[in-house]
């Protein structure tokens, strides 16, 4: 199912672009099945370079065809539409979306890939995602893609977008026109309504009235890699920091190894990171605390160890911080707990299932208020802690992670203080966060 607006080349059930305005609306892709899928594999047709509008689309075609040949299972028959030269058509190449990069020659190219929920099986994403150089969004939760995380450093193109979390919602009865309302889309060709669900946030695109282009105040460059619920294995790329990601969600996979120290280079772009339920190991890195723009940091249910670095006191924008289900130890830093006060926006601090031994007064207050969860640790005097023998056995093991330093130099932007105004610091629904909203697809 495709949603068209003024220009059929700029369409997506994920990006419903209102080109006549400066604001576009994002809705989660609808689960519309191909009611009468055409068996395109039976058509003998090999497009030639001259059949494509430009060289970028021809190269993208070759990349898509190579990836298609590696797919071993396609229960919804989506790859049957991946044939021919019309990559930007209304009914062809389902899951691929075209746009014109800001700047440059304005030629159409593939800028979005949304394969969420198709249950595709392929041994790897290497040679696919990393070979689409203008890609701004890749969303492929609930598939079975193996191999390593694809290389991201070469993906230079970025949409200009900003995210707000409280757009108006509509019901299916509110649909009119050709499918431009938030929360719903309409299949104009089939006359069939399809309800989209669960990921609702507004995006501002760098387009001025009249289509002249330009920048919108407050807009940030963003990329999203959303790969929850797959079979991705191996380590996170050591050069992850070169990707300029804004949203990284790779929960419920089989990733191993440490969190790369290069993640510090994302301190001016990364807004949410979801590494939940993998097999990541090594010391909880100091560099993770440099992500002063991040509202969500979730590395729960891994095998990370060490004390919480003092750099975590720099997380002035974090609202949801989950370090639970690891092998962390030492004191829960009071400076971190103070981020739930005037120094930050912290609404939930989740630390159960570790081996912490003490909390300070600010943390004790958060426990009482239900903001901090420290169940199943080793903290004397608190309820619901590990058995003393279990704690003693863990703490008798050699520790190789560096001790937390008493002070740390925060990034300049964080030091200036992105402090929430009174009344703004409150727990939000998980579905209002991009990465959490994609977690339960």
Automatic annotation (TrEMBL):
User: Any idea which UniProt keywords this protein has?
Assistant: Repeat, Secreted, Signal
Q: Which GO terms describe its cellular component?
A: extracellular region
Q: Give the matching SUPFAM superfamilies.
A: L domain-like (SSF52058)
Q: What is its main location?
A: secreted
**Coiled-coil segments on the chain, per record:** none
Task: List locations, semicolon-separated.
Answer: Secreted
- Tagged with keyword Repeat: yes
Signal sequence bounds: 1-27
List the InterPro entries: Leu-rich_rpt (IPR001611), LRR_dom_sf (IPR032675), LRR_extensin-like_regulator (IPR051582)
Which PANTHER family is this protein grouped with?
LEUCINE-RICH REPEAT EXTENSIN-LIKE PROTEIN 3-RELATED, OS02G0616100 PROTEIN
Q: Indicate what this protein is called per its UniProt record.
A: Leucine-rich repeat-containing N-terminal plant-type domain-containing protein
Query: From which organism does this entry originate?
Result: Setaria italica (Foxtail millet)
């Amino acid at each position: 199912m495709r949603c068209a607006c003024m220009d059929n080349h700029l369409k997506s059930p994920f990006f419903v672009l209102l080109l006549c305005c400066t604001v576009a609306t994002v809705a989660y892709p609808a689960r519309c099945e191909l009611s009468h899928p055409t068996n395109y594999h039976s058509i003998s047709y090999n497009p030639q370079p001259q059949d494509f509008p430009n060289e970028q689309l021809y190269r993208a075609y070759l990349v898509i065809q190579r990836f298609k040949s590696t797919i071993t299972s396609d229960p919804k028959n989506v790859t049957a539409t991946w044939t021919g030269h019309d990559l930007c058509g209304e009914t062809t190449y389902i899951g691929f979306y075209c746009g014109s990069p800001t700047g440059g020659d304005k030629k159409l190219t593939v800028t979005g890939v949304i394969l969420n929920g198709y249950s595709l099986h392929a041994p790897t994403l290497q040679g696919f995602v990393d070979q689409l150089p203008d890609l701004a969004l890749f969303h492929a939760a609930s598939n079975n893609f193996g191999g390593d995380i694809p290389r991201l450093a070469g993906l230079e193109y970025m949409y200009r977008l900003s995210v707000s979390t409280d757009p108006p919602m509509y019901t299916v009865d509110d649909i009119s026109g050709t499918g431009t309302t938030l929360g719903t889309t309409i299949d104009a060709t089939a006359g069939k309504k399809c309800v989209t669900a669960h990921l609702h946030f507004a995006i501002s695109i760098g387009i001025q009235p009249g289509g002249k282009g330009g920048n919108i105040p407050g807009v940030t460059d963003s990329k999203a890699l959303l790969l929850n619920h797959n079979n991705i294995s191996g380590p996170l790329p050591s050069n992850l920091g070169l990707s300029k990601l804004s949203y990284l969600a790779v929960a419920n996979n089989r990733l191993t190894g440490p969190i790369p120290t290069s993640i510090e280079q994302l301190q001016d772009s990364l807004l949410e990171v979801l590494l939940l339920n993998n097999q990541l190991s090594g010391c909880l890195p100091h560099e993770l605390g440099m992500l002063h723009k991040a509202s969500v940091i979730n590395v729960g249910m891994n095998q990370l160890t060490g004390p919480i670095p003092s750099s975590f006191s720099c997380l002035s924008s974090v609202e949801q911080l989950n370090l639970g289900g690891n092998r962390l130890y030492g004191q829960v830093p009071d400076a971190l707990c103070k981020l739930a006060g005037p120094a930050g926006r912290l609404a939930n601090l989740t630390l159960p299932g570790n081996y912490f031994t003490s909390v300070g007064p600010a943390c004790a207050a958060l426990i009482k208020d239900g903001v901090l969860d420290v169940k199943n640790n080793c903290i004397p005097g608190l309820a619901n802690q590990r058995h003393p023998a279990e704690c003693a056995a863990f703490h008798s093991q050699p520790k190789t992670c560096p001790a937390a330093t008493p002070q740390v130099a925060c990034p300049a932007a964080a030091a200036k203080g992105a402090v929430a105004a009174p009344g703004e610091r409150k727990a939000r629904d998980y579905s209002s966060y991009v990465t959490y909203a994609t977690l339960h697809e």
